[in-house]
Amino acid sequence: MESLMIIAFFVFILGICVVVRDAVKHAKKSTLDHNN
């Protein structure tokens, strides 16, 4: 049961990392568009 919680927590953190990375990518893209 504890191992399942650890796996769920790891997947949750991984998901947040993916979302944050995607958001940063979009933010950089929008700033480049504003400069042009």
Task: Give a verbal description of the structure.
The protein is an all-alpha fold and about 35 residues long. The chain has one helix and no strands. The chain has one helix at about 1-35. The chain is rod-shaped. The model has no long low-confidence stretch (mean pLDDT about 90).
List the helices and strands and how they pair.
Blueprint: H1 2-35
Brief account:
This protein has about 35 residues and is mainly α. The protein has one helix at about 1-35.
Describe the structure using short key phrases.
mainly alpha; rod-shaped; single chain; 36 residues; 1 helix
What structural category characterises the helix and strand content? mainly alpha
**Radius of gyration, whole Å:** 16 Å
Low-confidence stretches: none
Biggest beta sheet summary: none
Number of strands: 0
Mean pLDDT: 90
Instruction: Estimate the strand proportion.
Output: under 5%
Distance between the termini: 53 Å
Q: Which descriptor suits the 3D outline?
A: rod-shaped
